[in-house]
Task: structure prediction
Amino acid sequence: MRLWLMSMVLLFLGINVSTVDGNAPVDPVRVRVRYLSPDAKLIDTLVKKYDLRDHLHVGYHNVGHPVLFAVRRPDFEVLLSHETLNSEEEAFLKRKDIELQDILIGQRRLLVVCATRSRWRNISTEQLRQALMESEDDGDSTVIVVEDDPIAEMVLVGVLAPGGSASGSLKDTQLASHVHRSPRHTLLEYVKTNPNALGVIRQRRKSTPLGRNLRSLPVSHRTAQVMPPDEFCLDDGYALSQNVYLYARRDCARRVNRFLAFCARENGAAICHQFDLFTFSDQAGRLAAERLRQLRTGQCEHIAVAGDQSLRSVMGDLTRCYAQLHKAVRLRYQVQPADTAVASFLGGGRRYDLLALSSQPSNQALTRHHRRWNSLNSGVAPQARVVAGRAVALIVNARNKRLDLTPTQISYLFTNQVSDWDTIGGTGLKSRAGGRRVSVHRYGVGGPTMDLFVRHALAGRPLDKSVSIKQSSAEVIAAVNINPQAIAYVDYTSIPRAGHAVRVLALRLADDTPPVQLSPSTIRNAMYPYAERVHLYQHPRASSEASDFLQFLTTGGQSIETIYNDAPKELLAVFSRHGLVCLADSAIRRDMLSQFNAMQKRAKAATQR
Result:
């Protein structure tokens, strides 16, 4: 019944429930991928890593217009190709009202190398084409040596005859008699000693330098002369390069979009690296490092924030996360008591872009600054942006049948006014003969979690001295995991999704109301009492950088997410490190989907048993 109810809620929210772990589809409909040789091994490795082997239909087609061929087939879902759309394909797609998305998963490049004493200073693609395809050798012709490698041959065919042989082989290309194939090492040794030779090799990732007696030539195409780019840069201006694209319809199924995102992001990029593809992951890492350098040196825009001490560290980390993913902005965070921060934020002019508080402004502050607060946005009070929250979870052993407790019962348990589960009732636990029957644990001394629990659950009263202190949340969870009599409080974000036998208790606030479950939704709408929320307020004259940064937080990272980066995942990780739960709509949907998938796995495991 619970599984059915959760599925109905997820469908109402528009969440696709066709995945178990967020990656592999479980529905019988297959993702059909068509590819061009010699990339069979690349696509096969991506598929195996993504665990689509039972849900994938692959096909190889040696055709001159692969996109045109694929979209005419009713089973087309994903196409791997090295070619961009030509005019014929674009006209066909427009006529059929079909929109395609193209995902660049990597780039291959060739280098033209020569001896340092060679007469060559640069070479054009036309010169290279003529040198490779001259039919006569007059004795002065440059000796061309091509690396004996199928990938290098495929890229070279694209330069010699773009749109030609889709097989990517030089066998069908009429080459000059003085063009030779050779293994890479032999090729480099030969070119090094022969100033009248040029070598064409594949640029490999993290390959050793060419050496003192070899150099690579700039390659010009039409009027532009471009040096070979380094391994961190994707450069469409370099002529001896080949892009590897994945094509799919824009209205494709979500499972297809997830597969595309997997191929384009970090995990897929690691596989592409094995095949010497230069990816967006390389370029993104280099750009992120550059933005962090700008952040450290102050060569960037600034965002002025007034707020309380508890949020200073997390706001700094959020700024660094934003810089790594999108744009370098430097945070000027002024620590002030909450009421003082409100007064500073409302001061004349724009001293601060944002106001950051771990709770709403106090009644005293609103009473004192009522007029300025309400007139800040043309007579309308500033709108709070609730971006994250912190919550205390009450956990018991899974053998404890009790599903909820009242605030009074919790207070009695942690102040030793109740020391026997029999007094609470409904646990299904056997009574012990003598001694303490409830084992109570907590993590550390002080800290935001303890402060929050003491303030909200105990109304400021101290914990009983008999409460066991553990060194980490993991130790607390482990102690409850093995002891049916145990109860403890921990930070909500410290509870793993699997691998434990603890239950999170709900709170029954009144006899005539249903218990309140702990979840991001109940934290955001303030239904769960043992929680606090991070409120951000934007000044009406805040800078555009501050507005974009706030949009990044309130959308859970989706405002800057692309097919090449998983910004929501990075943002969630930052919040989690600080014990905070992201409360954006997208993050709440993601959490609900995660819970549903976990329920599916447990139901499947129970059925198999």
Q: What stands out?
A: The first helix runs from residue 2 to 12.
